[in-house]
Records
---
Amino acid sequence: MVQPGPDPDSYPPIDPREPVPDDPGELSPDTPETLPPPPVEPMPGPDDPDSVPAGPPGG
């Protein structure tokens, strides 16, 4: 089951005339500067029905 998100009425109003900071760290100071490495996804095996054949047999 999906939990409801935060109430949009509780957010502060957005002023379109306010300048956007060049450094995104000003908006979210608790986040790390660099992203962690992406997870390694397993490669499909030869018996996987969704795997793409490498080429014609006997190629």
---
Amino acid sequence: MTKPASRSPYTCNDYRAEMILLSLEKRLHKPGLEEEEKRALEAEIKKVRAQMGME
């Protein structure tokens, strides 16, 4: 009998971070977005991705 690969548990915080990231990305692609807001969203997306270990 083999042991399954060891993975860290998927937590509520992981899910929350994913939903925040999806929401930010959705807002970023909204038509008519002002350049200042676009830059702010891109910075926030980068921050969330870093917290999730994606960058």
---
Amino acid sequence: MLVHDIPDASVSAIGERLACESGVNLCYRRPRVPPTWRYNLFCMIHGQARAEVEARIAELRARLQLTDYAHAVLFSLTRFKQRGARYA
């Protein structure tokens, strides 16, 4: 998971650009939770190896001119199988 702190006026446009990128499986906006969580744009990037994902993130951030915005990369340690919604 790649998270960014994008100015509110720009987050929709940047989110749309990220969502169209190859390798970005999910991209969405969430509200910040100050003071603990400053990030408002989330995007999921899958890969086989950590180095592969880190290189893709660096390339995306440079090409889309996101390097001036704070970000964090959150790697999961467990692989979860996604399934459709189940209703009781």
---
Amino acid sequence: MDKERVIRKMNAALERELQEVVRYMHQSFWVSGPRARRLRAFFREQSRESMGHATTLGEQIVALGGRPVVKILEIFEPSDRGEAELLEECMRHEEAACEGYRRMLPLVEGDARLKRVISALAREEGEHIAAIRGMARSAARRRV
């Protein structure tokens, strides 16, 4: 296993997860309308889950002898988007995260513990995608 490469990939994932913490929390402030309470709770739960992923990644980076980065990729401004658009945006980000974890799996071959950690992160992202996809379909139907 190329530790330096794995650490670089994990740091990229850590940056993405930290950005998601902020993005989901920020989205929770902007939702309005009849489903605002449910969406607010959903976005805040997603933010907490992203923080958990970031924590896991940071701990694994240190365990490999690396230094976790603690910066955010971008600041997200959702103020002009409706429910369906917010959810579509979330789905794109979750799909990118899931794909990033899947691409990381071959890099951690030979380290069963780390492979389990990365597999679990990919699985959780897949679950998020399914949940968001269902919510986005419902939102799109209401919009029509």
